[in-house]
Specification:
With 633 residues, the chain is of the alpha/beta class. The protein has 4 domains: 69 residues, MutS, DNA mismatch repair protein, domain I, CATH 3.40.1170.30; 258 residues, Tandem AAA-ATPase domain (Rossmann fold, 3-Layer(aba) Sandwich), CATH 3.40.50; 194 residues, Rossmann fold (3-Layer(aba) Sandwich); 82 residues, no CATH class. The chain is 47% helix and 14% strand. Strands 8-9-7-10-11-6-12 form a 7-stranded parallel sheet, with helices on both faces. Strands 13, 14, 15, 16, 17, 18 and 19 form a 7-stranded parallel sheet that branches. It has a 5-stranded mixed sheet with strand order 3-4-2-1-5. Helix 23 links the parallel strand 18 and strand 19. It is globular, with a radius of gyration of 28 Å.
Length: 633
């Protein structure tokens, strides 16, 4: 039996020479989304991306000894797939050979010579190896730990391929925090300020005009966010495919697109196949599950995904049944050669010094309010069994947030918490006046201890970063530092980024640039991990971090540690960490928890297929803490 497949007007049209197909294989055809059109005598499916289905149909019919005839369009698409499959097979071979130590000497020597003669920055040995791996596999991933210099590696590879006429421009998709580092690293690695455009925010029409560029006028570097790409991907796709521009697509902090079917992931996948070469960067490739790898490698090889549908089903099954070794074995075979990973120990950095926690006694009113709220929470917990489960979970998370606010800055208790309206404060009538007028009554004891530490550091002419998780606390810290005669600056979620229209305030990139500059006028950086724990490097002039308060978010904690402990400055300079804890409060529980999680993570992070199923990135740590602190014995 012969089956014909055609593609026209965004429709796949499948016909069989005899009705046998409709009876025996109808369920499979319809499972893929085809609908029988009796009038046309064909199965029809509307799609703008027919490649995957063409491959599935051909493989299915081949297995069932059926002859598939492709029209001119579908044959052209299938040959595209075959070329991609051949390139993927070659990349896997090259990547596996490279990891096994079988290195092609001539191209290796060419690249190293280019590095010495044309790249101002001297790359570390591990960076050269990562760059050579990327050159060998063409479209590859770098899963090195934060601080390993992934940006340096990509820029070196880009410049080498650009010098050979293979690439014209870098197109980086990532969080806004990565924009400044890409621009500054471009200049430091390649020795010249890039011609760049930030394609994020601002006027939509003006932004989309920037995509209408000829090859002669293309810039060195384009930067956009996942949010903007979600809206602009048709424009980006046209930019890549209509003007003959050879684009190197780089997805920075690629763990943001791990969710299959997510809008950000779909946007990246929609443009990936139209770039000349592709690279993904993340230090946390599989944060929750082995399935997090699917999207990442679909982006790298959109025409011929390395992980087949059958393999995906197996990985799902093994993951669900806690058979990690079997799932990891499949990944090792399919994607192991396509990524490179530099581990923390490979960096040969100086030690990280975690000083003993500074235990501080609360001031009188702080203690009075904290103890009262703890007692009130205990009483409320006794009747929690009457609550609806979902409501109970929200209440407990809200109570934990109130306790965290207490150990940070008492006036935070006046702020509203989304989805939490329990009257924890107003029921404590004697406390309401203290909370409302706290700043006139006393200053948090942590502020005094923080100032002591900063004074010692500044007397040694050392800079410091002070971390807190609450915006009002950050403002309090900055104000206290200013009154003490220091030069602090603040970074939190509201700090404008370089693509903002705000010009009266310092941009975050400018704040960081001045902070890392020895005489930049900023001595103390006050920041929250949510806004400054990712894609930011502070290590060149700062090796001190003070944790004014902590959250249960281990991922942000680990990322914040690496801000001052990175390649290019920490090789011979220890990083020092100081933790301010109130005595007999949840401060101790939080620090103990994040340290335990961090230890567990570091114990597995050297594995190529480390799955951080330790609730580090999202989860219910505060609820678990509530059970520890207030659960029944």
């Amino acid at each position: 039996m012969t089956v014909t497949l055609a593609y026209a007007d965004s429709q796949l049209i499948l016909r069989a020479a005899e009705p046998y197909l409709a009876s025996r294989h109808k369920s499979q055809i319809q499972f893929w989304g085809f609908e029988l059109n009796a009038e046309k005598g064909a199965f029809i499916l509307s799609t703008d991306d027919p490649l995957g289905l063409i491959v599935k149909i051909k493989n299915y019919l081949d297995k069932n000894d059926k002859i598939l005839e492709l029209d001119t369009t579908t044959e052209k698409i299938y040959k595209q797939y075959e070329r991609g499959a051949g390139a993927l097979a070659q990349a896997i071979h090259q990547g596996r050979s490279f990891k096994d130590g079988d290195i092609d000497i001539r191209p290796t020597n060419d690249f190293i010579t280019f590095m010495k003669n044309e790249i101002p920055r001297t790359l570390k040995d591990h960076q050269i190896k990562a760059a050579l791996h990327l050159l060998n596999v063409q479209n590859g991933a770098n899963f090195s730990v934060p601080g390993a210099g992934k940006t340096t590696v990509v820029l070196s590879v880009f410049q080498y391929l650009k010098s050979r006429g293979e690439l014209d421009s870098l197109f980086v998709v990532g969080p806004p925090a990565c924009f400044g580092p890409w621009i500054s690293e471009y200049e430091m690695v390649l020795g010249e300020r890039p011609k760049y455009e930030i394609l994020a925010g601002g006027d939509v029409d003006d932004r989309r005009e920037q995509y209408k560029v000829s090859k002669a006028d293309v810039l060195d570097l384009y930067l956009t966010t996942f949010q903007t790409l979600q809206r602009d991907w048709p424009n980006v796709r046209n930019f890549m495919r209509l003007h003959g521009i050879n684009v190197y697509l780089v997805v920075d902090e690629a763990h943001y697109i791990k969710q299959p079917g997510g809008q950000w992931a779909d946007a990246v996948l929609n443009i990936a196949g139209h770039s000349k070469k592709r690279c993904i960067l993340t230090g946390t490739p599989f944060p929750k599950s082995f399935t997090d790898a699917f999207n990442l490698f679909d982006v790298l090889w959109p025409e011929s995904p390395p992980i087949s549908e059958q393999d995906r089903h197996k990985i799902h099954y093994f993951s669900k049944h806690n058979q990690s070794e079997k799932a990891g074995s499949i990944l090792d075979e399919k994607i192991g050669p396509l990524f490179y990973r530099v581990r923390k120990n490979d960096l040969h950095l100086a030690d990280q010094i975690f000083h003993d926690p500074v235990i501080i006694n609360m001031n009188e009113k702080e203690r009075q309010i904290y103890d009262a709220i703890v007692e009130h929470v205990k009483k409320l917990s006794e009747s929690d069994y009457k609550r609806n489960f979902d409501i109970l979970m929200r209440l407990r998370q809200g109570r934990m947030m109130r306790l965290r606010q207490c150990i940070s800055y008492i006036p935070l208790l006046k702020t509203a918490i989304p989805d939490y309206d329990e009257e924890l404060i107003t029921e404590i009538f004697l406390m309401s006046n203290i909370i409302s007028n706290y700043d006139e009554i006393e200053r948090p004891a942590k502020i005094d201890k923080m100032l002591e530490l900063v004074n010692v550091m500044r007397n040694r002419d050392e800079k410091a970063v002070v971390w807190s998780n609450f915006i009002e606390t950050l403002k309090l810290i900055k104000s206290a530092l200013e009154r003490a005669g220091h030069n602090p600056e603040l970074i939190y979620g509201a700090t404008p980024t370089q693509n903002s229209t705000v010009t009266a305030e310092l941009t975050r990139e400018e704040v960081i640039r001045r902070f890392v500059k020895p005489n930049g006028g900023i001595d103390i950086l006050v920041a929250n991990p949510a806004a400054c724990a990712e894609s930011i490097s502070l290590h060149k002039t700062c090796s001190n971090a003070i944790y004014y308060d902590l959250s249960y978010n281990c991922a942000q904690y680990l990322q914040s540690l690496d801000r001052i402990h990175r390649v290019g400055g920490s090789e011979d300079k220890e990083a020092h960490y100081y933790f301010l804890l109130y005595a007999n409060t949840i401060d101790q529980d939080i620090l103990l928890n994040v340290r335990k999680k961090a230890h567990n993570m570091y114990s597995i992070i050297d594995k190529d297929y480390a799955v951080y199923s330790l609730d580090m990135f999202e989860g219910n740590e505060e609820l678990e803490a509530y059970e520890r602190l207030f659960g029944k014995d």
